[in-house]
Structure prediction request, 513 residues.
Amino acid sequence: MSTNMIEVRNLSKTFGEVHAVNDISFDVARGEIFAFLGPNGAGKTTTIKMLTTLLRPTGGTLTLDGLDPGKHQNAVRQRFGIVFQDPSLDSELTAWENLQLHAVLYHVPRAARQERAEALLKLFELWDRRHDTVKQFSGGMKRRLEIARGFLHTPKILFLDEPTLGLDPQSRNQLWTHVKHLNQTEGVTVFLTTHYMDEADRVAQRVGIIDHGRIVAQGSSQELKDQTGTDSLEQAYLALTGSSIRDEKAASGDHLRQFAKMWRR
Amino acid sequence: MSAVYILWLRELKRYTRSRAQMAGSLGQPTLYLVALGFGLGPTFQQAGNGSYLQFLAPGVIGMTILFVSIFSGVGLLFDRQFGFLKETLVAPVPRIQIMVGRTLGGATVAMLQGTLMLIVCIIAGFRPHSLAAVPLALLIMMLIAVVFCALGTAIGSLLQDMQGFQLVMNFLVMPIFFMSGALFPLGHLPVPLAVVTRLDPLSYGIDGLRGALIASSHFGVAADLAVLGVMAAVFLALGAHFFSRIEI
Prediction:
């Protein structure tokens, strides 16, 4: 078995004419916390979707725990937990029911199902609210529940796609504390994306920066600072990706992607 | 198999928690039953066709099941919008099980709504010819529900957002309902209409319900069951196919 949890070689994904991900290669070691950074529309979410079997790559290879997500979909799905950029809870069900549903889908044994759900709900401070439907929860509570759910089936790797989006500093802080704690106690590999450079600097052991579908730099936060001659990750990031705003381009890119998707049917 | 069960259970839980939906989907069929059943009743009687209310009740039961089923299938779009779909799509479970669980859950809900509508019909004065026929009627209701839940899932898998929903309503659900013989007898129709009614799966469902509940059937209950069974298999396969190809 290879020493790396994730190995990506020359990975590409095109939507029609748009190169969302263009020939990227990187590794994530076992037990590592890896931050995948980049401006909006750079290809972060597309990469995560390919790693998590939601999209098929156009070219290149990737393995997760030595397995190809394209060939061994279910084995790969059993190995990771994911917290998506946007919510993915059933808001009509209670917190407890959401966890139980997840546990059944991920073949968690019945005894462990109760025990682990209870432990995680307590850890994420949601135990008292377990019988409330999720639609009554605040944004931070929903996020915490999603992360708890991601850990429920003891994954080997956890994907966190902008998990702190829209959270207050208290919740963000608490969330990363939990993630680091679980990384240390359960040895879970963490692959995260965020727009908050201070978080990446604080939490991640290694950082990869993607821009326009290409990896422009990777290494530890210190290496990136040295490489760019800057003294914070944020400045290093800006030095590498430029300071122009990408929103508009990303929006039109999304549009094209949607359009291409429609016509491929 | 536990994945199928838990997703079935999810549909049921959502249903029992939404009283508004429960009452809402009975509104339109009840309106048809009352307005047309009592409004056209005398004319129907004079034409020598017996009680229109008796004739119409299986039609509005079929209508209830059709609407609830298609909505539940297209409910996939809500799950896509609100993100829950992704949670099921990355789960280490074959997509076919996810699809079957959802579809059976939706079908069960539709059947429960159909049963409620049957009760509404009985309150309005409808009388099944014998109580022994009720199990057969329930079987037919289940088949109708599976057929249209699977169709709804197939459509829901192809649509990207809620914009397409109106299209489905106007160009699929309403024609299926109006061309099914829910409102009129299938005999002595002009040829084009006769052809269209025979192509409509709901025709066989409602005809089967009439066979079971009022002992009057155009195609024969055995033929109705056969057609419904085949349609259910075809739409399940179609729904599973499109569902397995969803990318988000």
